[in-house]
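User: Sequence in, structure out. Go.
Assistant: Echoing your sequence, followed by the C-alpha cells.
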Amino acid sequence: MSENRTEYDVVIIGAGVTGCAAARELSRYDVRTLVIDRESDVCEGTSKANSAIMHAGFDAKPGTLKAKFNLRGNQMMKKLSEELDIPFIQNGALVVCRGESELPKLEELLRRGKQNGVEQLEILYKDKLAELEPNLADEVYAALYAPTSGIVCPFGMTIAFAENACDNGVEFRLSTAVTGISKEGGLFTVTTDKGCVKAKCVINCAGVYADRIHDMVCEHSFTIKARRGEYMLLDKNTGNTVKHTVFQLPSEMGKGVLVSPTVHGNLIVGPTAEDIDDKEDTATTREGVQKARTMSALSVKNIPYNQVITTFSGLRAVGDTEDFIIREDDKVKGFIDAAGIESPGLTSAPAIAEYLREIVGGVIELRENPRFNGKRKGVTLLTFMTFEERQKLIAEKPEYGRMICRCAQVSEGEIRDSIYRTLGATTMDGVKRRTGAGMGRCQGGFCSPYVMAMLAEKNGTGLGGVKKNG
C-alpha cells in the first residue's frame, strides 16, 4: 500500500461487497486502483448485516439489471467460492404460500423466474414439503422450490474480494472520508479528510450515502433511502430447524421475513423492513424483534427462540428507480454510479463488477495484468475442518490447539492469522468477522480480553487503544 501516491486510474469510493468485487475485477488489469472507505475495515456498512442469501433470481422483474445480475452472480458463485476460499452452501430455497388463494402469486414467481433464466424451479405441495421441511407451519399449502439458491458468509465474501484485490495491487485507504469531488482537465480530484487524490475514473459504491457522493460532482438524479431490517441470530444447535432458506411471498418492501440456516450452522430469522431518515441508525427495537418473531411463525413452526444469542439490524440502500443504478453519468464522463444496490445486491456483486469493468473500459484502456492471481486462501478455520485435519494442523502448529473463543471454538492460531494477513483485522469486530470469535453464546464475554491483547500487540497500542470498530 502506497500512502504517498496521489494519482490513480480508478478510485472506488466504498469498501462494501460491490466496491471490493469491483476492485478485484479491476485487479485483473494493469490499472492503478484505489479503494477509499471512511470506516476502519472493509464490510462495515450494508454488506456486513444482511440475510447472507445467494438468491436464485426468480423475484426480480424481467428485463431489469436486478434480474440480469442476480442470475449471473448466482451462476458465478460456485467457482468464486473455490477460487477465493469463501464458505458457500447451495441449500435451496422455498417460497411458501398459506392457502390455495395465494397460489397464483407463486405461479407468477415461477413464470418470472423462468423468464429470468432460473433453472429447476418447481411448485411443491404440502405432502412433499412435509418431507423436505417438517417444521414448516401447518397452514403452508405450497411452495416455490428454487434449488439453485444458496447461503454464504457476507463479510467473508467481501473480505475475500478485498484481500485478493490487494494482493493483486489494488490499494486501500481506510478510516478515510471523502469530503468533496471535482473534475478539471479530464481528471477528478477526490478530496478526503486525509488529503487529495486524482483519478481518471471514479466509481461510486457508497451504499446508503451514494446519492450524497453523486451530488458532490453531478446533478442530482436519484435519492437513496435507508431501509432498516432487524434480525435474530440463534445458537448453532438450532441450525437444523430448517435445511432450506424459507421465504414468504414478497411485498413492495422486500422478500419478507425469512428463516434460514447459515454457513456457520446457526439459524437466522429476519429481516423486518422500515424506511428511516437516519442513515446511521442500526439500532434494534423490541417492536422490530417481536415483529420478526411473529412474521416468521407464518412460515416455520418450532423455532426455539430461547436460543437467540444476539439481535442486529442492517440498512439496505434503496434507490427511487426500482432497479440498481449502475451507469456513467451523462454529463460528468468517467464518474460511474453503482447505487441502490439493495437485495439481491450480495448475489449480484460479482456480476455488477464485470459490468463496471466494461464501463471503465470505455473510459480508460484496460490491459491485462500479467501478474494477476485469482486464488486466495482465507483464514484457516477449524469449524470447517474434519477431526483428523484439526489434529494434523495442531500437531504442526500448536497455537491452533489453544482455544480463545470457547463458544465458537476459535483458536489463537485463527485469530493471529486474521490479524497478520493482507488487510488484516485491526479491531474487535474485524477479528469477529474473519474468525467468528465473539459470535458464540456468550458474545465475547470470555474471549474479548485475549483478542484485545493480540490486537494491542499488533497495533502497537495498549489495551486502551483497541477499538470495537470505527
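User: And one key feature?
Assistant: The chain has a mean pLDDT of 95.
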